[in-house]
Amino acid sequence: MDYLPIFTKLQSQPCLVVGAGEVAIRKIHLLLRAGAEVTVCGIECRPEIAELAEQGKLTLLLQAFDESMVSGVRLVIAATDSIDVNKQVATVADAQGIFVNVINEPEQGSFVMPSIVDRSPMLIAISSAGHAPVLARMIREKLEGILPKHIGPLTALAGQFRETVKQQLAKPTARRRFWETLFSRGEVASLLEKGQGQQAQQKILSSLEGFTAQGEVALVGAGPGDPSLITLKALQLMQQADIVLFDQLVSTETLELVRKDAKLVNVGKEAGKHSVIQEKTNELLVQYAKAGKKVVRLKGGDPFIFGRGGEELEELIEHQIPFQVVPGVTAASGCSSYAGIPLTHRDYAQSVVFVTGHNKAQGAGPNWASLAQANQTCVFYMGLLQSAKIQQNLIEAGRAASTPVAIVSKGTRQDQQVITGQLSQLVELSQEVQPPALIIVGEVVSLADKLAWFGQQADAGQAASSLINLA
């Protein structure tokens, strides 16, 4: 993070703008809207600035910049068309410990001016740290179109009731939950949008009466790795959570989307390593929910596809804990799409089967005869350590040794790796990648070279040649 974003209070604070041209006008108006006492210095000035001075809204000094001008001011903006003058202003301000912004040369100053979405008292600032101001402006324009105008009045109304809510709900967690519940229902916002301010106030008071923060669990699919693949609802719940219990397969980038002061608990399971047993995870879900916490159980992929989500919900039901389920993009769909491998295709596969590479101890194994059928795609989850067994059983069940296979490692992530070859080479291929990885078996894999669109991947020829060298 190159800059720490802050909002500073400038009401009645002296601020200096050096420069009185077109660029300076925009900054002057921002300072005036913030209530600052603005002094503008320039040899020449735009008529609009002179008019503001005549109206008594700012002080205008029609002269060259002098070092004494920065004495006692809170903030300085260098907005002249002279690089040398701007640099001089920045040097003088820095020497006196005064924050300074240099227009068009942000690296010379100590702060940058962001693009602003103003729904006062709600303010949203967007900055590219000076690297791409046009992009920051475009993002601001998108937000302007998304955020309704009544966000400002809603924010102001919430501020009026902060102390009332604080008096009735002593715990910060309970207060946060109250506001989240109130805002998410949208009833108060709807009343404000209709101009019914008094009814909106009554709605807040009636919602506060008897409010208690109940614990609940959201079983959320985090997708295969790319954080942009999570659903909007998943993001909302991650931003509201008190506790997040996450799996090993949840990417670091996805975890960064969780509310910053939420507690993160790693309950992941990783092949060949010590990990939290499922029973302990179930106990933690119950424990946190009974303590009144808003819990998100964040699982890689989809929680109901080899994610043991059903087992965890059975535990919650037994303890009468409310829950909801948010599906996610399962690894088979996400990884195959990012590898350019369609799971079904009219010319190659009319069905697709998802298979786990790890069965419960003493549990029944898969029906290999059904998995070996032609014109079918088989996707093996967590099958890397079982590649020898998969290869042997499929071939023995009748699947051709020349059947195309692919292993997608770290699918949908920037370091995704895809290696393709034949079923007879699966064991050797599995030694070329690192978990987490997905194994895809079927004729559709032959389309990978043609349809690949994301990241770097080895083609069938490269894989085959590396296997020959290994042999």
Report the mean per-residue pLDDT as an integer: 91
- Helix-residue proportion: 25-40%
CATH architecture of the largest domain: 2-Layer Sandwich
Total separate domains: 4
Strand order of the largest sheet: 3-2-1-4-5
The major β-sheet equals: 5 strands, parallel
Q: Would you tell me which CATH topology of the largest domain applies?
A: Methyltransferase, Cobalt-precorrin-4 Transmethylase, Domain 2
Strand content: 15-25%
CATH domain class name of the largest domain: Alpha Beta
The shape, in one word, is: globular
What ranges have pLDDT less than 50 throughout 5 or more consecutive residues? 457-471
Protein name: Siroheme synthase
EC number: 2.1.1.107, 1.3.1.76, 4.99.1.4
Function: Then it catalyzes the NAD-dependent ring dehydrogenation of precorrin-2 to yield sirohydrochlorin. Finally, it catalyzes the ferrochelation of sirohydrochlorin to yield siroheme.
Active site: 247 (proton acceptor), 269 (proton donor)
Structure characterization notes:
The chain is of the alpha/beta class and 471 residues long. The chain has four domains: 14-113, NAD(P)-binding Rossmann-like Domain (Rossmann fold, 3-Layer(aba) Sandwich); 151-208; 216-329, Cobalt-precorrin-4 Transmethylase, domain 1 (3-Layer(aba) Sandwich); 332-358 and 368-470, Tetrapyrrole methylase, C-terminal domain (Methyltransferase, Cobalt-precorrin-4 Transmethylase, Domain 2). The protein contains 19 helices and 17 strands. It has helices spanning 22-33, 47-54, 83-95, 133-146, 151-160, 162-168, 172-185, 187-193, 197-208, 232-240, 252-255, 278-290, 309-318, 331-338, 368-371, 387-396, 426-430, 448-451, 460-470, and strands at residues 14-18, 37-41, 59-61, 75-78, 99-102, 115-119, 122-126, 216-221, 243-246, 263-266, 294-299, 323-326, 351-356, 376-381, 404-409, 417-422, 437-441. A five-stranded parallel β-sheet has the order 3-2-1-4-5, sandwiched between helices. Strands 10-9-11-8-12 form a five-stranded parallel β-sheet, with helices on both faces. A hairpin with a 2-residue loop joins β6 and β7 (122-126). α8 packs antiparallel against α9 and α12 crosses α13 (309-318). The longest helix is centred in the first third of the chain and has 14 residues, at 133-146. It is globular. Residues 457-471 have low confidence and may be disordered. This is Siroheme synthase. Then it catalyzes the NAD-dependent ring dehydrogenation of precorrin-2 to yield sirohydrochlorin. Finally, it catalyzes the ferrochelation of sirohydrochlorin to yield siroheme. Residues 150-206 form the Sirohaem synthase dimerisation domain. Keywords: Cobalamin biosynthesis, Lyase, Methyltransferase, Multifunctional enzyme, NAD, Oxidoreductase, Phosphoprotein, Porphyrin biosynthesis, S-adenosyl-L-methionine, Transferase. Residues 217-426 form the Tetrapyrrole methylase domain.
